[in-house]
Write a structure and sequence with these properties.
about 400 residues, alpha/beta, Metallo-beta-lactamase, Chain A, Rossmann fold, seven-stranded mixed beta sheet
């Protein structure tokens, strides 16, 4: 299967409709994904990236239908991670001497994965590869977006940026172009991708985009490595990345809780009542951390100006679901967000203080000491929760 991207550039990747988990089990992909590979046929034929390892044989068999493999002059490996490079071993069995263009860190990554000494050609930002018919590939290092070896390639004359992981989404669609898919779903998945994968590197996003703009390339198409291709106003996703990279927040408060006997749940719901009584315009989203998709939760935290986290006290600490989410948030390094803690307890009651410390460690501005309620909250305790909600909205 191939899809025409532009002129002599075709998509030759794999749409993975059944994918539900990625990066092991770390990332949910509820709308599937795609592994985007591109074939450029000019005086020189160039293959950009491949597909995930489980589809290697299928990928190479399909590629043979598009081109005699011996006629592939160059391979570009924009990123060594296995979802992009996984079909290389199967492909290189048949064309072992074909040059592979990648960054210096890409050589280390690909060798580390496959333990093969292929014909690597190291490139850096600004290096060019003449492929004939007045076209060149220009390489741009994209270090830490989101791996040290990441890079992009720009095709002159056709004005296509092969951006690898940057600007992508985990979104399976037979249409493959941004103007042909549901815009709400597209941006939901693009934001989820940014919040869960790119966010830790937000300080580098603006810098890398500035470097790209300084090259003064006209970009008509952004051909990503996952999800749909941006051909209708591709600048829109670049603008979103710039917005998301700068301490992004919406008028939203996300309340996260775990609960054993519904006491902390009742606290969360009553805090919500207090917030709404003071500010009816703010969006409030409530999640049970043990039952909701953690990556969807993280996406909502990224959207929020404030996060409230609650857990009962368990063994002088917090529940495993609470600890897991807070560990993830520490690694994601979200900026410009306030937070507070709450929780029920039976006899020792350390959870709220523990959550507060973990939130501070994760970079949140903790606005107060939090609140705790003993046993199943009575009306007096619930009124305290309402007042907590009314007060926290003013912070």
């Amino acid at each position: 299967m191939h899809i025409k991207v532009k002129n002599n550039v075709d998509w030759v990747g794999k749409i993975d409709w059944q994918l539900k988990k990625f990066h092991g089990n770390e990332l949910s992909t509820n709308r599937g994904s795609s592994y985007n590979s591109y074939l450029i046929k000019e005086e020189k034929n160039v293959l950009i990236d491949t597909a995930w390892k489980p589809y290697a044989e299928e990928y190479v068999a399909n590629l043979k239908k598009e081109i005699d493999l011996e006629k592939i002059d160059f391979i570009v490996a924009n990123h060594g991670e296995i979802d992009h490079s996984g079909a290389l071993p199967e492909l290189m069995k048949q064309i072992p001497d074909t040059p592979i263009y990648c960054s210096a860190a890409g050589v280390k990554s690909i060798k580390g994965h496959y333990h093969q000494d292929w014909n690597f050609r190291v490139v850096k930002t600004g290096d060019r590869l003449d492929i004939g018919n007045g076209r060149e590939l220009v390489f741009i290092e994209m270090k830490m977006l989101h791996w040290p070896d990441s890079m992009a390639a720009y095709l002159t004359k056709d004005n296509i940026l092969f951006s690898n992981d940057a600007f992508g989404q985990h979104y399976a669609s037979e249409h493959m172009f941004n103007d042909l898919v549901d815009q709400g779903c597209l941006y939901e998945e693009a934001l989820k991708y940014y919040a869960n994968i790119i966010a830790p590197f937000s300080p580098l996003v603006e810098k890398k985009i500035d470097e790209l703009l300084a090259l003064n390339f006209q970009v008509d198409i952004i051909a990503t490595s996952h999800g749909v291709i941006w051909r209708d106003n591709p600048a829109q996703i670049i603008e979103k990345y710039l917005q998301w990279s700068k301490g992004y927040q919406e008028n939203q408060i996300t309340i996260l809780y775990d609960t054993m006997w519904d006491g902390t749940k009742r606290m969360a719901e009553t805090i919500t009542e207090g917030i709404k009584s003071r500010d009816n315009d703010v969006t409030i989203k409530l999640f049970n951390m043990a039952r909701h998709d953690k990556n969807d939760i993280i996406t909502e935290v990224f959207r929020s100006k404030m996060v409230l986290v609650g857990s009962p006290t368990v063994n002088r600490g917090v529940t495993t679901a609470t600890a897991g989410i807070l560990e993830e948030l520490e690694g994601l390094k979200f900026k410009n967000k306030k937070a507070a803690a709450f929780g029920c307890y039976g006899w020792s009651g350390e959870s709220a203080a523990r959550i507060g410390k973990l939130l501070e460690k994760a970079g949140f501005e903790v606005v107060n000491e939090g609140i705790r309620c003993m046993w199943n909250p009575d009306e007096e305790s619930l009124e305290m929760c309402r007042k907590f909600g009314m007060e926290v909205i003013t912070r």
